[in-house]
Amino acid sequence: LAFGFTNANGSFFLEGHETEITNIDPVLKIFHKCNDKGIPCERTWRIGVPDKYITIGEREPKKVMDVGILNVEVVLNGETRDCIH
User: Fold this and answer.
1) pLDDT less than 70: residues of the chain
2) Domain extents for the chain?
3) What are the DSSP calls for 26-53, one per residue?
C-alpha cells in the first residue's frame, strides 16, 4: 500500500489505499540495522494496524495512527530479519 523512509528527525508519514473485495489486514513493517552487531540483513519489526484506522470507501483517512516514539535498540519478541523486501 505504501513505502517510505524517515526524515532527518526520524519522523515519517505513510498513506496508502487499495481496492479489495475482502477485508485487509495492513501491517506497518519497519526495517532497520540499529544495534544489529554486524549480523546480515535488516532487523524487521511488524506492527499491526487496528481496524479503527482503516477507512472504507474513501481515499482520505478518517483517523491517523500515531505509533509514537520507538526505541529501535530494543529487541522485540517475534522480531525477524529480512534480506529481501
Assistant:
1) none
2) 1-85
3) -EEEEEE-TT-TT-SSEEEEEEEPPGGG
Cell reading at 78: 517475534
Flag whether the pTM goes above 0.85: no
Cell numbers linked to 37: 552487531
Cα 4 to Cα 7, 13, 20, distances in angstroms: 10, 8, 22
Contacts of residue 84, Cβ cutoff 8 Å, sequence gap at least 6? none
Query: What is the 8-class DSSP label of residue 81?
Result: E
**Per-residue cell: 3:** 513505502
- Burial (CB < 10 A; 0-12, 13-18, 19+), residue 49, is middle
